[in-house]
Every structure is written in structure tokens, then in C-alpha cells.
Amino acid sequence: MQSWFPFIPESASTISGDVDAVYFYVTGVTIFFCTLIWLVIFFFVVRYRRRNAFEIPRPIEGSHKLETLWSVIPLIIAMSIFVWGAKVYFAQYRPPQNALEVYVVGKQWMWKFQHPTGQREINELHVPVGQKVKLIMTTEDVIHDMFIPAFRIKMDVVPGKYTSEWFEATKPGRYHFFCAEYCGMNHSGMRGYIEVMEAKDFDNWLSGNANQTSPAAAGQAMFESLGCASCHGANAEGGRGPALIGVFGSNVTLNGGQTVRADEGYLRESITNPQAKIVTGFGPIMPSFQGQVNEEQLLGLVAYIKSLSTAKQPVTPTAKPPATGTPQSANPVRSQ
Amino acid sequence: MEEFTLPPPRTNYLNAEYGVKSWLLTKDHKRIALLYMGGVSFFFFIGSLYAMAIRLELLTPQGDLTQSSTYNKMFTQHGIIMVFFFLIPAIPATLGNFLVPMMIGAKDLAFPRINLLSWYIYMAGGIITIYALLAGGVDTGWTFYTPYSTTFSNSYVLTTGVGIFITGFSSILTGLNFIVTIHTMRAPGMTWYRLPLFIWSHYATSLIMILGTPVVAITILLLAFERLAHIGIFDPAAGGDPVLFQHLFWFYSHPAVYIMVLPAMGVVSEVIANFSRKNIFGYKFVAFSSLAIAVFGFLVWGHHLFVASQSVYAGMIFSFLSFAVAIPSAIKVFNWTATLYKGSISYDTPMLYGLGFIGLFTIGGMTGMFLASLATDVHLSDTYFIVAHFHYIMVGGTLLAYLGGLHYWWPKISGRMYPEGWGRFSSLVVFVGFNLTFAPQFVLGYMGMPRRYHTYPADMVSWQVLHVLSTAGASILGFGLLVPLIYLAWSLRYGRIAESNPWHLPGLEWQTPSPPPTENFYETPIVTSEPYEFAPPETKEVVGKFEKQAPAQT
């Protein structure tokens, strides 16, 4: 697992080269300035060494122009690093379209993965090469961090919310991942491998583990067993509660007039803490499901609600949900 | 044979009174400085033992020396002891306590009793913390991140928190004392621009101490409420936010980095100017850069949270501000270097430490840019790169400056000279050992080795090679630090008697006997000269091609 340069980890994602480029630039600047300063100091220390115990050198007044010069030059260089670093970072954190979404749950001290087709893995993740993969992550206990050095990505996994990171692997192989946020006793054991496979090998691997319940299907079963249907409708078409079809990805208008984008975090909050944001036209009648569903079940519910948007309402936020028998149902989903 | 009768020994602050009580109830800032020096050295020794154990454990990929839970306690306790009980008080409470009144021509600090109180508070906090370590230890990391520290850790989090909470007050009192003293007790003629740069940097440090430390006190208090009563402020299930803790923690703990390094910069400014017998190049730039660091230091905490689910735009603002705070430090490095130009540079031990500081601080500061830059920080945060970076600042910066300052003022403090040859030797050993310890960790970090790891994958052979180098360096560093401990203690009894001004310097602290009398100066000095005035100011040369050459002689 070595790259062409011995002190650089394997570079195996579409952004790892960009990060390395910034790294080399800053390394170059660092080496240049450190060497410059050391050489100047070394020269002065030798050249102006004390030659007799009584010598008194001539005092020198500072020079504003020189000082301005060596304030402005470092500032310009620093700003160039800032801009470049921010640019790469921005690209790195803009969530991609049409990515393969893998759900990740961290817990002391293991990583649980679930593919959209239902396959589950622990401390190992199989992904296809050349496809964008988005990890949607949360944790059952403390803060963890999914760090994949070969892809140059890292993101904390924080209790109570979803964080995400994405990558597109560029070459097949087996790469380490680590928990990078200290999480207790066996923190250093909370690591594993990403197995990047050719697309056809990946399909083989998936079909070899078929007949799994997908997160969305599991979520649908939860939706029924938890009694969500009694308010949100048997097909999530709405009732006493807002319709869930087409909600994901839309802008929801709340009581009080502000709008909020319905992403995974919003769906999660609406299940665990329904009173936080009430959709306009509805009353605060939903009980909290905090503690009644675990993180994986919660991800299933979120996946189910997402599937209601992606399947029936592709990316046309202006479309209204299908007409239903209940009159309120058109209200909650408002798009802009 | 003629008989000589020795003159009766001069009364100084060390022999003015005898007995334990005369030390424990002293109001003399110089004696309190020595009390602090005892405490600080003790905690440094404990912290170093943890460091050695950590380095030994990492020699092999497996965990073969300790269990994971023990290892976690070791790095936590190493961090807590070193940060709160060594690095923060080291220079201000020892050298600062001793020298702030002497450098401005005062008899003592403004509040001598509060000064003594601050030492008792420091020791009380320290003893409580040591008790927590002996009772079972703490394993949260020195950063106490929630919810691990509030809900999941089964260790002495609260007791340690109480220790740190209490110690924080000693730092507030010291800062308060310095600010009042510098404002009100300067000798006649000691204008602000005649203050040695050591004073400016301690003034800036004091500002951070009194403005920042209350925030960490509040944070620890909230942590305690959360752990005891589960008030929910950091708990998402109750509507709280665990990341809020990180914001609060770093709002203090990033400025705390400047509490550690600003006094070190003050020491180095003194050493560089005095041991090249030159006034500092661009006095006002260096003085105000300290204040700029103190102010901007409060605005950059978010760079610890680039991967903690902070918003992308907040990340960009904090990244920008973090680059901005680098500039005042860069100015200092250039000005120190320019001060050497056409100087008369001695190779005495304090100067070797001072030059070593500039070299290592430059690396520490420049590697900070990797972490201020968003793209590279994502990869580097929470890896050994961070560990290497902050040790270059904390050890390469603060510890080297502390040792340099200790040697520089040792004749004044103890009245004895340390053995110069041993001093030079140990400073070189420290320099080599330090670099061998921490330079490999930069490489380890970029290769992906996370910090706070008890074990690492055995297939990463290069990681183990780098760890072995680092541990070898740590052994050399440890040896290099033991040597001064021995010869400084030796010199207290056997060292050559120091003159009042062994280095022939113009600073006020050298214009009084060594060791000084309890009241510092027999007569209040009247200041008529600029700082670092080795030669009359009329002879001053103006450099820089852009300015007109001043007439050499008037």
C-alpha cells in the first residue's frame, strides 16, 4: 500500500490528488521559508559572532518598509493557500447527485454499514470503482469519525444528527479506514477496510448477498408497525399528519412562515423531536419516537420516506403530491 | 600571614528569612516564583513519565505494554498535566513572577497576597488532579469531548474537572496582578515604549488569562452539571448539542495556546536582543504583534471543528482568520532574525536555546498552515500531524524558551552561575532529540496514523519505523532534559558566585545585586534609556534601501 512517493499514502479517490497538490504546495512554501530563515540565521550567527568581550555593535533602527514587506508577502502567500484549500474543500463537501448512498452507524467500537439494496457489513465496506459513494452517518453513542486516508476524507459522526462524506474511488484495492475521533477504550480497534471492486465484481458481490431487506423496505415495515400510518396515511398520503410523499428534498413551510429544506436531518428531527418544527396547517400532536427506534431503524424510516420522493416524484419539486381523499393533504408539502 | 576577614554576607531575598514558614507565608514575588518553579517542575516530571510510557507502547503495532484503557489514561493524563499544570503556568508564574516587577523597577507585584494565594490555588488544583490520577485516572482525552465525558466514561472526570477548574483561578489572579502591576508600578521614566518586550508579551498573555479562563471554567461547570444532573445541554436526546461543548472548549483552549507561547516569545525577544547586544529590530512591531495575537487568537477556535459537522461557510471564515493570525507570528520571526544582523552574537546557552526556539517555532508555525487550510486539514485533523505540530509549538517553543530563560536568569535567581559547557551540551542534545521525536510524526500523520491510538495495523511497516525513530528521539530528549536538572541543582551549591550583571546587560533586573534584596532595588531606579540600549541612540543606523540613510553622527 505505497504510492510512488514513500511518505504519501495511497491516492485512490478523485479528490485525493487535489488534496495532495495543496499539501505539496504548502510543503514547498514551508521548506522554502524554513530553509531561508535557518540559512539567514546561520549566516548571521557565524558572520556576526562575538569577536571580543567588549565589542558593542552599532544599534539599528527598525525599518517600517522592510517590516511592511515581510508582513505583506506572507499575507499574500497565506491567502493563496487559503483560497486554494477552501476551493478544494468546497468541491469535496458539495454532496454529489446520483451517488450510491450507504448508511453508516458507528457504535463503540465497530462500524455498521448498510447498502441501499439491503446488504449489511461490519468493519468492511464493498464499493464499486468509478462511482460516487455517499456515506450518510450517525452514531448510537459517542462521537466517532470516519477517516479514509487513501481517499483523503474524514468526517465526524455525531450523535443526534446525520453527517455525510462522499468519495469516488479511482482504483480497485483494499484500503484502511479508521475511527479518528477518540471514542473510548477500544478506539484504536475501531477500524476496517474499504474494498474497492470493479463494477462487475461489485455486482457479483451484491447478488451473492441478495435477498436482503433494503433499508427502505425495512423502514416501510417500521412505518406500519409503529402506527405511523394512522396519521400519515397507509401509503403516506397524509391525514391528520402531513403527507410524506415528495417531502424529501422539497422546501417545507412551517408554522410561523419560515421554510426549511427537508433533508435527512430534518426527517430525523421530525421523528425524534416532532415538536421542533411543525408543518404549517398541522397541530403539535405527534409523539416523540426518541428511544423507541434505534439508529438503524431510524435510518430505515428515513430511507423509506426518501424512497417516496425518488420513486414517485423524481426531481420536480413543483409537482404536487397525488390527490388523496383527505383535504388537508395538499397543504403540508409546499414547494418553491 | 595577613588575615582576611570576609565581609558579612549581604542580605538577599533567599537568606532574609529562614524556615518553611518563611517560604509558605512569603509575600515576596521572587520567593513565590520559586514556589511555582517547584510545582511546575514536579508536574513536568510526572507528565514526562507518561510521555515515555506512551512512546514505549508505540514501538510495536500491538498493545503489549499496557491495556487500551491504561493507554487511554496515560495520554489523557499526559495532556492534562502538561497543558494545565506545566505549559500554562511555566513561564508566566515562574519567570514572569520573578521578573515582571524587576524589569519595570518595582518592589513587588501590585497584590503580593493575591500572588501567594494564586500559588495555593494552583497547588490545590494540582493536588486534586493528582488525587484523581491516583484514585483511578481519567480517560477522556485532555479535551473532555462530550458525550463521551458526560455519559460514557467510567473514570474520574469530575474530580479532574474540579482540579482544572480550581487551577484556572490561579491563572486569572496572576493575569490580574500582572496587568495592574504593569499599569501602575513602572519606575519613573519607564514609559510604555521603554518596557522590555518580555513585559509586553506578559501583558498580552494576562489579557488572555483574564478574558479566556472564565470560559473554560463555565465549560467545565456545564460538563459537571451534565454529568451529575443530566441537564441536557450537550445531549441531543434532550435537545442539546454535543458539538456546543467543542465550541466552548476551544474558545478558551485555542487562546490558551497563546497563553503558552506568548511568554515564550517574550523570553526569546530578551535573549535574542541581549545576547547579540542589539536593540530589537522594529520594537513596536514586535510589541504590538503580541497584542494582535492576543486579540485574533480569540477568533479562530472554529479551526478545531473543520470536520466536526460545522457548516462549510463557518469553516471558510475560521480558515481565513487562522491564516490572518499567522502574520503577527511571522513578523516576530523576521524581526528576531533581523536583530541578529550586525550584532555581536554570543554562543552562551540561553542564546542557543533562543536560536533553537526560532528554528522550531518556525516549523511549528508553518505546519499550522496545513491545518488552517481546509482541504489539507480534513485529511490531517486528528492524526499524528496534529500531534507533531502542537509539540513543535509547545515543546519546541515554550519548553525551549523556558529552559533558555531559566539559564539566562539563573545567576539572578540563584546567585550562582550554571556550568556553561554542560549547558551548551544539553541544549544541543535537547534540540536533536526533540527533532528526532516529532519530525517523524509529521510524516506519520500524512500517512494517516490517527492520534490517540493504542495499536495500529501491523501491515503498515513504515508506520512502525517512524514510531521507532520517534521513541528513540524521545529517549534522547529525556536524557537532554535530565542533564540540566542535575547541573542546575549542583550549581546551587557549587556553582561560581554570580556577579550582579554577569552578562553585562542594560536591563533593570541586572542593575541590582544577584540574588536581589527582598525589595529588589536599594533605590528606585530612574529610567532614562530605551530598552536594549547598548550604545547611545545617536549612533543608530537605519537600514532598508527604501529609506534615506540617516546621518551616521550628529
Supply database-style keywords.
heterodimer, A: alpha+beta, Immunoglobulin-like, five-stranded mixed β-sheet, 33% helix, disordered C terminus, B: 554 residues, Cytochrome C Oxidase, Chain A, 15 helices
Structure description:
Chain A has 7 helices and 13 strands. Chain A is of the alpha+beta class and about 325 residues long. A 5-stranded mixed beta sheet of chain A has the order 4-3-2-6-9, covered by helices on one side. Chain A has a 5-stranded mixed beta sheet with strand order 5-11-10-7-8. The longest helix of chain A has about 30 residues, at about 15-45. The radius of gyration of chain A is 27 Å and the shape is elongated. Chain A starts with 15 loop residues before the first helix and ends in a 26-residue tail after the last helix. Residues about 310-335 of chain A have low confidence and may be disordered. Chain B has one domain (about 25-535): Cytochrome C Oxidase, Chain A, CATH 1.20.210. Chain B contains 15 helices and 1 strand, in the order αααααααααααααααβ. Chain B has helices at about 20-25, 30-55, 70-105, 110-135, 150, 155-185, 195-230, 240-275, 285-295, 310-340, 350-370, 375-380, 385-415, 420-445, 460-495; one strand at about 540. The model of chain B is unreliable at about 545-554 (pLDDT under 50). Chains A and B meet through α1, β1, α2, β8 and β10 of A and α3, α5, α9, α10 and α11 of B.
